[in-house]
Amino acid sequence: MKNLKLNVLVALFFCLIGFAQNKATETAKIKQIAEQMFQDVATKNYDALIDKMHPKVFTIVPKESLKTVFKSTFEGNGAISIDVPKEIPNFNISDIYNVSDTLDYAFISYDMKMKMTFNDQEFDDESKELMKNMMSAKGMEVNFISNNTINVSANNSMTIALKDEDTNNKWTVLNYDASSPLVYEILPTELLEKAKQYKQNLMLE
């Protein structure tokens, strides 16, 4: 009986070791894709950025349309241009969760900084305050460095890392925006509720 208990304890110990090692490996993979994602944004490598996204995105928005949106956002559309710092921001990775053993996911949180220049518009004091209030409602801090250029800090930004059968069990990413209908069409309710709560906790910290 003693030998049986000892064998069970040894088996349990090695099971826990294996679980911890697997978790560390998966977290390392998420860290790698997060670093690559930030690098893609900084270098404007839209194709690489799109390749990292969950494939369900492309059943709703074609890749070429998405690439056009990225180019317009980060290279300017005539009226606005955006500059993103080259360095990778500090980021945190949550625990890894799952939905019915068919979908694994984790949250990547970070503060995103950028500079926005309005090429055909200048702001007076009143419109600057209006802009600050509008951006604040979206969780962004704004600092005017000229009458047409602002530094923006998108604090507590969040990206979801996820893998399932659709991704061939490889980690992909999806930006979390609670106001975007895209996430509601792609993500299951359980994940959405978890993401909402995790985001709220970030904002309260």
TrEMBL record:
It comes from the Bacteria. Keywords: Signal. Residues 1-20 form the signal peptide. This is DUF4252 domain-containing protein. It comes from Neotamlana laminarinivorans. The lineage of its organism: Bacteria, Pseudomonadati, Bacteroidota, Flavobacteriia, Flavobacteriales.
